[in-house]
Design a protein that fits this description.
single chain; 171 residues; three-stranded antiparallel β-sheet; 6 helices; rod-shaped
């Protein structure tokens, strides 16, 4: 994981395997292990032999002798770089989906509001002869009777989905 041979790190303090900003945290967790407590760092950065870094999840556990006294510390480090990249990609995909839903709801609402408004004018008795027959087209588009409610329900459903996606980070 780190690229070191065992002989190269003998005598090193475990905190030397982490980036400098995380070394103090490691020292605190090592003290916890010395006192018999297991600790975990869910996300940290480790330093490889080549100078690169790796996203890590680290668990420290106390090692006890036959008499129960803590004699050392066991460090288990797992490379979570690929999981972190997958989570970031999923977050980007969720944001793109939310943006799409938001834009789609706006693109639907704008023309449908115009159609709905014109249909309501026709229902209120807009002069059929002056409209040149357009009223039949609009009424047919929104349906007789409850068409306006259906259009509003579609618009509201898309908007609700968009809001839920933004609030929860996904649908």
């Amino acid at each position: 994981l780190f690229g070191f041979e065992a002989a190269e790190v003998i005598g090193w303090h475990l905190s030397m395997l982490l980036v400098p900003s995380q070394q103090k945290v490691m020292e605190i967790l090592l003290r916890d292990a010395e006192q018999g407590r297991t600790s975990e760092i869910v996300r940290t950065l480790g330093v490889r032999k080549d100078g690169g870094t790796a996203d890590l999840s680290v668990t420290l556990s106390p090692l006890r002798g036959p008499d129960g006294v803590v004699t050392g510390t066991c460090l288990v480090a797992r490379d979570v770089s690929s999981r972190r990249r997958a989570e970031e990609e999923a977050d980007r995909a969720n944001r793109a989906k939310s943006d799409f839903l938001s834009r789609m709801s706006h693109e639907l609402r704008t023309p449908l509001n115009g159609i709905l408004g014109f249909a309501q004018l026709l229902e209120m008795g807009f002069d059929v002869h002056r409209s040149g027959g357009a009223n039949r087209i609009v009424i047919g588009a929104v349906g007789q009777g409850n068409g306006d409610a259906q259009l509003l329900a579609i618009q509201d459903g898309v908007l609700r989905m968009s809001r839920m996606a933004r609030a929860t980070g996904g649908v």
